[in-house]
Amino acid sequence: MITIKAQKLTRDAFAEFGDFYDCMDPKGHTLGAFFHDHMKFPVEGGRCVGISAMVKEKVDEVIVTKAEYHNHSCELILPIDADVLLHVAPPSKAPVPEQTQAFIVPKGTAVILNIGVWHMGPTPINADKCHFFMELAERTYMTDCIIEEYPEDKHVKIEL
After folding, report:
1. Which end of the chain is more exposed for a tag (fewer CB within 10 A), N or C?
2. Are 40 and 48 in contact (CB under 8 A)?
3. Per residue in 39-59, is it b (16+ CB within 10 Å) or e — as a string?
4. Phi then psi for 82, rounded to 5 degrees?
5. CB-count burial class (<10 Å; 0-12, 13-18, 19+) for 88
6. Which domains, from first to last, does the chain contain?
7. C-alpha closest to that of 53 among 73, 32, 83
8. Are 103 and 83 a contacting pair, CB within 8 Å?
9. Cβ contacts of residue 138 below 8 Å, gap of 6+?
């Protein structure tokens, strides 16, 4: 039998095997609560999946005032430490707030949004904040993120 001693995960010690990122205490470049593409996951064809973290705080009232979609990438959303409220609307040429649906996503449940699905970042519902693990094609937030503000009469209030 061979016996080895477990070691602390550090960049130097792990470099020859891969990479890691602390999604519970994200650091580095950010777009607000979205810590984008801090790890790259190469896939066939030379493309990379950007692995990102997001930290969102609970709000008193969930009102959808805008939504985004992506034409060339699905999006994986994994709430790590809280149940969250996720709003979505079907793909369309123009925003369809009247077709918005909301879902309670339990913590630890990965959700993949299809290409074109209207959405915004989920909101924690049973904790003051939630840490998320997010995956999109690398730089989607800069090259394929269409955000549309809704007119005030089309805002959507979500109740539990």
Report:
1. N
2. yes
3. beeeeeeeeebbbbbbbbebe
4. -160, 155
5. buried
6. 11-158 (2.60.120.480)
7. 32
8. no
9. 37, 40, 47, 48, 49, 50
Q: What is the DSSP string of 130-143?
A: EEEEEEEETTHHHH
Task: Provide the whole-model pTM.
Answer: 0.84
Name the pairing type of β-strands 156-158 and 62-64: antiparallel
Q: For the chain (length 160 residues), average pLDDT per consecutive 10?
A: 86 85 86 85 82 94 96 93 95 95 94 94 96 92 94 95
Measured on CA atoms in the order 67, 71, 74, 80, is the torsion positive or negative?
negative
Residue corresponding to tokens 């960049």:
11
Distance from C-alpha of 70 to C-alpha of 113, rounded to nearest angstrom: 10
Beta carbons of 75 and 135 less than 8 angstroms apart: yes
